[in-house]
Amino acid sequence: MLVHEGFDLFVAERLDRLLRYATALTCDPHLAQDIVQEVLLRAQPRWARIGSMRSPELYVRRMVTNEYLSWRRRRAAKEISSEHHTLNAIAAPTGDVAAEHAERAAMRARIAMLPRKQRAAILLRYYEDRTDAEIAEVLGCGTGTVRSHLSRALSTLRATGYAESTAKEAWA
Amino acid sequence: MNLDRTEALIRDALTEEAGRAVDPGAVRARLHEGSRPARRYRAPIMAAAAVVVVAAAGIVVPQLLDRHGAAPAAPAALAAKDLNVLVMGLDSGPGSPRADSIVLAHLGQDGTGSAVSIPRDSWVDVPGHGKQRLNGTYTQVRDDELAKGKSPADADEAAARAMSTTVQTLTGVTVDHYATIDMAGFAEISTAAGGVPVCLKHAIDDPLTGVSFPAGQQTVSGDKALQFVRQRHGLPKGDLDRIVRLQAFLRSLANKVLTAPEATREHALTTLLTTVRDKVHTDPGWNLLDLTGQLLKLRGDTLRLGTVPVSDTPPPAAAGPALGVDPAKVRSFVQDQFAPGAAPAPGSGDAPCVN
């Protein structure tokens, strides 16, 4: 297959998923678009090499992730104190649409406030169903570090029980 | 929360976030062009030309916001600075929408908040376009950009920037960010907030539009909230009364969120902001969640909300309804409104009643 055809095929098959990955990673559709565009434009002339790798898809995700991690503009999110109340049994899902929406929105906010590498690990595990080894390849670290990112992120994201269930009452 | 449920919620949340991705067609088009895409994270809101205009008018030249991520001097803390955000409520067309509500909000680093409304019919100086009605500026610039072949998203951005420059010129205040919201988005946000308490002096019953409200205290959300803030006919002072309704609504909303119990307030606010983030368009690269820390410090009951002074006598050059504005009076008013220190808290807890 001609090299440029390989790139075009890659884009045709993977662009949608790649954009979604970048959007969930950056929490910013415009930034995601810019990053994906930049990365693909850089990858295109190098496709002879990238296209013949074991997993071009993982490699391109790595490029996107690195581009984002090195983007200098700081978020204020880390400044926000996140006092998490200890675990309490959360109310069973009520099936109430508004409550579910609020729950999802609260989780999205928490994910958006995670340190970037933890967010990338969570995204790769729970949105892309990647293995530790694949996540390690994207993040450029060892599998031990991957497990550490995941467990820290999960403990942050899990510790919402009391605060969230009472948040629903705040709106009642 | 047990792990399975957390994981399911994480997956749902990530899927929802990922769903905000732009249309891949836009990216495909740029790739075919093969050229380096123009970086969105380029200019501050205020274009270079406007700097000259503002300086010539003798207004203190505001600090340009450096968007290219120059490392902040104190990397540990959020750069503590006052923030000015131009919020525009857009009607639904047909064609390019008009900016029907124009509110310049100020968040002081001391935790004070204020907002000034600028009537849509204000006859203002639009840099590069001469004098015209403020709300038509958005429409006109958007149409011009579309005619030049720009995408709707780029046209929206150009129109919002033009409004920001105009408001900046009029008020003498730097506009750091903008946010536009359409009618459906407004309705959904009020629903996400669980409804907003308001009070009407008189019952409303308009057979023409089907709008009907009882007199007195009530809670509005969704379409009712939209009807509440959009009504103009039958109000003694027309659009100026409508602005007062919006101010009452915003004060009540702010109060509701900021007086939630302390333990849940941050959650309530971040949940609401995440919904807002989905429904508004902002200048590219601005993350609304960045405001959380500053908003949590706000005292909802001491917000200063006011309308810029306008003249009754319509400007001679204007055709149709227009309100004359004196820029010097507007600047002085805005400076007072945005000065540090809170307004005195009102007496009662209920929402004040409006026309």
Automatic annotation (TrEMBL), chain B:
<protein>
    <recommendedName>
        <fullName>Cell envelope-related transcriptional attenuator domain-containing protein</fullName>
    </recommendedName>
</protein>
<feature type="domain" description="Cell envelope-related transcriptional attenuator">
    <location>
        <begin position="98"/>
        <end position="257"/>
    </location>
</feature>
<comment type="similarity">
    <text>Belongs to the LytR/CpsA/Psr (LCP) family.</text>
</comment>
<dbReference type="InterPro" id="IPR050922">
    <property type="entry name" value="LytR/CpsA/Psr_CW_biosynth"/>
</dbReference>
<keyword id="KW-0472">Membrane</keyword>
<dbReference type="Pfam" id="PF03816">
    <property type="entry name" value="LytR_cpsA_psr"/>
</dbReference>
<dbReference type="InterPro" id="IPR004474">
    <property type="entry name" value="LytR_CpsA_psr"/>
</dbReference>
<keyword id="KW-1133">Transmembrane helix</keyword>
<keyword id="KW-0812">Transmembrane</keyword>
<feature type="transmembrane region" description="Helical">
    <location>
        <begin position="45"/>
        <end position="65"/>
    </location>
</feature>
